[in-house]
Fold Inositolphosphotransferase Aur1/Ipt1 domain-containing protein.
Amino acid sequence: MAGEDWLGDVPKDGWQATHSWKMPEWVEPIIIILILFPSMYLTRRRNYSVFRRDKDHTYKLLDEVEAGSPSPRSSNEFELLPKPDAFPPKTRSLCGFMRIRTPNSSRFARNVHSRILQKFPFLVEMFYWAIALALYRGTGAVAQLIYGGHREMWDSAADHGLALLDAEAYFFGNGHEGPKRWLEWRIQRWFLHGSEAGDYRVWFLTILNRGYALIHIPGTVGFISYYYATAPTHRRFCTVRRTLTLTNMLAFVSFILIPTCPPRLLDEKYGFVDTVNLESAESVWMSGKFVNKLAAFPSMHFGYAFCIGCVFIADSGVLTGLINKAFNYVFRSSDPDADAEEEDDEDLLLKRRSPLVRGLMFAFGLWYPCWILLTIVGTANHYFLDALAAVFTVMVAYVFNRFLLVFLPLEDYLLWACRMDKPIPTTGRMKNLVVE
């Protein structure tokens, strides 16, 4: 295809970000810090002292509550254990097939590190996401091991990327030949030509480049912080958190088994331009030798955005009937009375929002995934099928999010090994729960 006319269609010297701005590498970590630590402080348990251990501690078991199942209908529903030696084992269910007993770490509630967590329970969420980031960092190495080497993995990833483009061209090719049959190529060319001409598209593309780097990690962390503080119930928050976590796990399996080269890393003869790196706008979290550059399918940029958008639409109440039925189906527990009361609490808290706030939440829920879709395609970082796969991944994760409860026994043993008690969350009405 070297002699095709489209080769002369490449903007001279690639893309020149004449209106771009440089951003130091320390900006992103500072943004994360400015999100996490204020969130940790704002969601702290008030009227609770880390160092007040001069009297008998009131211990509270959190068997199902700490797992994200229905929170107690009143503080009296916690089992009070005034004796320090009265800590019976917890009973956990493994996918409903068997029940096992695990250590009860409530006996360690008076330890300083336990009381720090009790004061700042959002630290637990920070720990969960640190684990997810660490697992992502390992997907590239595992994929390389499976495919038998770096070169073999990259060759397979390029083939997978081209296969996605050809599959899309079957529906969106519009009879074009060469790269013009690829919708992603045509969209990026529109930005590149406008950028070369110096019109508004040069600013538009620069915003997309920066958005690709800054929105994915900081935006998702910001959402977790926001929803931890504003979710009507802890049960609702945990379902969203588990959905995001299981989405990550499913995506990581795909990254390992189906490494896929993003359009920007395909051979330059295909005409895609890596605008993010040309503008030095790459995220500090997505750079370095431990980053999997072949993690295009599915797109977690769009997966996170789609999940976040659905949460805002659901909480806006605009589509209350349909979406809440789906939420309540996934939130169901073994206690119908608890479910009914939780649903009443959620409905009451969601209805307190003004019509203006509801409208803005619904509009944001629609706009955010669309903006991310334009970002990942316009910067040649993903294919449309990546986004479609991400939607499917999120939906599967949502339906089966309770699968992650199988890890509760492991968490119990980890807490026991660390001599630490898991804190009572401060989400929803549980923020007013008095803990001594």
